[in-house]
Amino acid sequence: MAVWRMRTEPVDYETTIDEICSLDWENLSKDALVNIAWVYYYFSIQFRENLEIACQLYPWDRKLRQLMQEECNTDNLSPWPDVASTGERMNHDEFMRRLLTLSPIDQSRGKRLETIGQRYLNKVYEFDSMVRASSIVSYEDGGLERVFGAILTSRDWTSPLLQAFRHFLSQHIEFDNNPTTGHGALSRHLRPGDQIIPLWTAFKHMLIEAAPTLLSRTAGTTEENWVQSII
After folding, report:
1. pLDDT at 117
2. Got the DSSP string for 95-158?
3. How far is CA 71 from CA 27, 45, 84, 147, 188, in A?
4. Of 117, 211, 102, nearest to 163 (Cα)?
5. CA–CA separation, 184 vs 219, rounded Å?
6. pLDDT in tens, 170-226
7. According to the model, what pLDDT value does residue 220 have?
8. Stated pTM of the model
9. 80: phi then psi, degrees, rounded to nearest 5
10. Percentage of the chain surpassing pLDDT 90?
11. How confident is the model at residue 107, as a pLDDT?
12. Average pLDDT of the residues in 158-162
C-alpha cells in the first residue's frame, strides 16, 4: 500500500515553478495572453484527469473526494456571462472550453494552438498513473497559485475571453490558498517526488511555445531558438 507523507522540504519542481513565474508576464500582449488561455485549456484537461486517477487509486481518501467535488461537476465558477448560468455545474476544464468561444480567433492560429496543446497532452500521457496522481499536490498546494498570480500581472484583459479567464484564475487562487480548508489542504498529505518535474517542464514549454515573448527577460535566448528547441 502506498504511504503518502507530508512534504517537509522543497523539491526540484519548485525551481520550474520559479522559472514560470519569472517569465515576462507583465508585458504580455493581449493576443499573447489569449494564446495562454487557449493552451491552459489543455492543462486543465490533464489536471482533471490526474485528479480522477488519484481518486481511482485511493478511493478511500475523503480529502481527495472533496477536492473532486470542488473541481468537477461544480457551480463554484458560476455564473459567468455566456459561459455558465447561475448555479450551473460543470468541470473546470469545460468552463475553460466555453470561455475560449467568447472571442474567436482565426483558424490557422487556433490550429497552431491546438497542436501545441495536444502535443503537451501527449507528453503527459507518457507518464504512469502514480506520477500523474502525485502531481496534484504540486498544483494545488501553492504551485498554481503562484503561477496564476504571475499571469494576473499581465496588463491587458480587455476582451470577453480574457475577462472570463481572469475570473477563472482569481477564483482558483481563492480555492487554493486557505491554509485549513483550501484545495492545498485537501491534497497536502500527498508527497510528490522528482518524477513530476517533467510534467512542470512540459507545462512551461507549452506556455512559452504559445507565447514566445514571455522569454523577453531571458538573456541570451532568442524566441526562435527556444521554440525550435522544444518542437
Report:
1. 98
2. HHHHHTTSS---HHHHHHHHHHHHHHHHHHTTS-HHHHHHHHHHIIIIIHHHHHHHHTT-S---
3. 31, 11, 15, 18, 16
4. 102
5. 34
6. 998 887 565 555 555 555 566 667 889 999 999 999 999 999 999 986 544 444 444
7. 43
8. 0.87
9. -150, 135
10. 67
11. 97
12. 97
Angle, helix 30-57 to helix 107-124, in steps of 10 degrees: 30
How far from chain centre, in Å, is Cα 66?
19
> Is 160's pLDDT higher than 60?
yes
**Residue 199 · residue 127 · CB < 8 Å:** yes
Residue with cell 492560429: 109
Cell of 5: 507523507
Q: Which tens digits make up the pLDDT trace of 84-121?
A: 999 999 999 999 999 999 999 999 999 999 999 999 99
Domains and CATH numbers, the chain: 13-230 (1.20.910)
Distances (CA, A) of 174 to 8, 106, 177, 183: 23, 33, 6, 9
- DSSP assignment of the chain equals --------S--THHHHHHHHHTS--TT--HHHHHHHHHHHHHHHHHHHHHHHHHHHH-TT-HHHHHHHHHHSSB-TT--BTTTB-TT--B-HHHHHHHHTTSS---HHHHHHHHHHHHHHHHHHTTS-HHHHHHHHHHIIIIIHHHHHHHHTT-S---SHHHHHHHHHHHHHHHHHH-TTTSHHHHHTT----GGGHHHHHHHHHHHHHH-GGGGGGSTT--HHHHHHHH-
